Amino acid sequence: MIHSMNVKGNNRSVARTQALLKQGLTELMTEKPVQNITVKELTDYVNLNRGTFYLHYKDIFDLLEHMENDLLDEFLQINHAHSAVEMNGKPYPLLYDLFKFLKKNQNFVRLVLVTIQEQKFVSKLKKILRERMQNDWNRIFANADPVLCEIYSAYVRSGCMGVIENWLETSAIQSPADLARYT
Questions:
Q1: Which of 7, 124, 153, 174 could cross-link with 133 by S-S, CB 3.0 to 4.6 Å?
Q2: Other Cβ atoms closer than 10 A to 80
């Protein structure tokens, strides 16, 4: 897991400050590219001083990277909470939890996945999906041709990413439960 720089203060205060900075950056990113957002602009926007920002992050890109890593950590936790054996070919519980997670974080995910297409984040997300599919399919289809499994995995991953992008582009109209059933 990725952790913030060492900071003094109680955990609730730190968490509140970091949440405020993350929310503020997400909101500012809807107005302009992240590379055009300054620490001063962000701290003015969330009514904190710049020194407070620097207790937690080196710069705007460090904050963005923490936000992406926090999201990926939570995505991994959800992913690991559902084993292929338990699902027995029925991925609804995993898909439901993933879509709930995406809905909860839809503003930021929409920005990095759809709007600005943050390639590093997208690549990490695809890598997680690829590893999960390979592990599950190796267990389920032990005798399958590995080349065909890789081709099918790429096809399914692209379809999953397309469904997620479309859902986010349309303001996540369907509920996570509905989307998990359709997928």
A1: 153
A2: 9
Which residue's entry shows tokens 């081709």? Answer: 151
Region of residue 89 (left: phi > 0; alpha: psi -120 to 50; beta: else): left
Distances 29 to 15, 19, 69, 70 between C-alpha atoms, Å: 21, 15, 17, 17
The string of DSSP codes covering 6-55 is P--S-HHHHHHHHHHHHHHHHHHHTTS-GGG--HHHHHHHHT--HHHHHH
- Sign of the dihedral through C-alpha 138, 139, 144, 150: negative
- pLDDT tens per residue across span 105-150: 998 988 888 766 567 788 888 888 888 888 887 777 778 888 888 8
Is 0.85 surpassed by the pTM of this model?
no
What type of residue sits at position 18? Q
Dihedral, 133, 138, 141, 144 alpha carbons, nearest 10: 100
- Record the tokens describing residue 23, joined without a space: 């929310």
What is the Cα 142 distance to its own chain's centre?
30
What single-letter DSSP state applies at residue 116? Answer: S
pLDDT of residue 8 exceeding 60, the answer is no
**74 and 97 in contact (C-beta within 8 Å)?**
no
